[in-house]
Amino acid sequence: MAVTAESIMSPPVQAGSSAGEVRIAHSLLAMVPYQVAVEVIAIPRGFDEKGRLEVVMTASGGHRALQLLQMHTGRLIKPVVAEKEIVLQMIAGNYGRQVQREGRAQAERPRASLSINPAESAVTMVNDIIHEAIRLRASDIHFEPFEREMAIRFRIDGVLQEIACIPRLRVPEVISRIKIMSRMDIAEKRRSQDGRIRINEQGSDVDIRVSTLPTDFGEKTVMRLLDKSSYDYNLDSIGMDPGRMALFKKAIQQPNGIVILTGPTGSGKTTTLYAVINYIRKPGINISTVEDPIEYNITGVNQTQVNLATGMTFAHSLRTLLRQDPDVIMVGEMRDRETAEIAIRSSLTGHLVLSTLHTNDAPSAVTRLVDMGIEPYLVSSSVSMIVAQRLVRRLCSHCKCETTVTEEIRKSLGLAAGIHLYKGLGCSACGYTGYRGRTGIYEVFPISDHIRSLINDKAYAAALRAAALDEGMILLRDHALAKLVDGVTSAEEILREISVLA
């Protein structure tokens, strides 16, 4: 089909809010499904004098987009070229209103899904589920048994999504297959079990940690997928801005002291630690770790797995490591006073120690150590930096466009009226979620001489925070807002992760 691209002339569509305010008739929108509009970045506008359907689209749409549009509409297409941002704003403004009128959920986005044939063998079903999880970059697979069926959910970019269901009659076979793969006792159903699977997916080794838990309707099973090839252990790509990255790099290149990463479970602390080790490792440095569990093997690093059954606790392993001539020690987590005390004393005897804690912000890590029984003078003389972090989802670069938020959200985030915000419409590239990948937000808290004196005086976290702010520390919330204004993420995502600090 021969086509000639034409520029938008009437009505003129400019970048900004006006593009989303162009009204398009419902009958026209119905000709091109929402998913197709986002997929090819195009939206119908009207008919020309020859009866051709005018479709606003990008210059890079190509013949595939034209053929797809012609197939769905049954009309000859007259392409009208516009910038990608303009087309996305028109899609967001018009399809959003259509969905609202029809009383359906926001946009007709299909969730990621997997078609499971109940007649297939348990081996095939489990293999298909694992392969689909790897393809969708899921970090976890949840097998959740209920009264009539078992739900299969994937955690993608930190958010759980329901993928499929398995009939109740097939559940015992599926769980037994998983147990066989992970070398568990298939006859034991009353106690929790842990296992491990290693598979090769397209030339890449994937480790899978498996955990079972008895529930009212059977054993819930969770698989944690550890695909080393999918992680980037480049310290410069974790999402920290250049100013704070310079401070962070200075701290982790010191010959001694302790650097602590803090945040809730799932905030990316371990990944950041691996990125740090990858940055500082070289032949002249002996790096040893104590982890529970070892998530990824790092070349040139001595990694030890905690094993409570054999007495290899964090504290015992750490004492042993000190006799192994280490230069850098990574302690997966300071869970108790004994482990924290050994880690801190190790940093005072000429070792660089990297570890993690669970607190909401960086200054609170100091009071957490004191509450564990560590003397304030030990904390002040050993800790060189504390970094709090969270993970937020990145907006999909393919379907990202400008958007507006309610006045309530704008006020809660403290945003000025003129600031441009963005959202992801949802497309095949991001599994119709509007997001693809995650980035970190950080609160970097260097321990200055003034902060050390406050710690020695047993100052509360609020006083430490106030002093750090006077010295230029940027709060987690402020770094999150910077990511929002830069168009990296959405207001909804910031509120989901940082609401307790807003």
Could you please describe the fold and organization of this structure?
- By secondary structure, the protein is an alpha/beta fold.
- It contains 18 helices and 19 strands.
- The strands form four sheets. It has a seven-stranded mixed β-sheet, sandwiched between helices.
- A hairpin with a 2-residue loop joins strand 6 and strand 7.
- It starts with 5 loop residues before the first strand and ends with a helix.
- The relative contact order is 0.09.
- The N terminus is likely disordered.
Cα separation of the termini: 55 Å
User: Which percent bin holds the helix content?
Assistant: 25-40%
Backbone CA Rg: 27 Å
Mean pLDDT: 87
Structural class of the secondary structure composition? Answer: alpha/beta
What is the topology, as strand order, of the major beta sheet? 13-12-14-15-11-16-19
Structural features:
single chain; 502 residues; 6-stranded antiparallel β-sheet
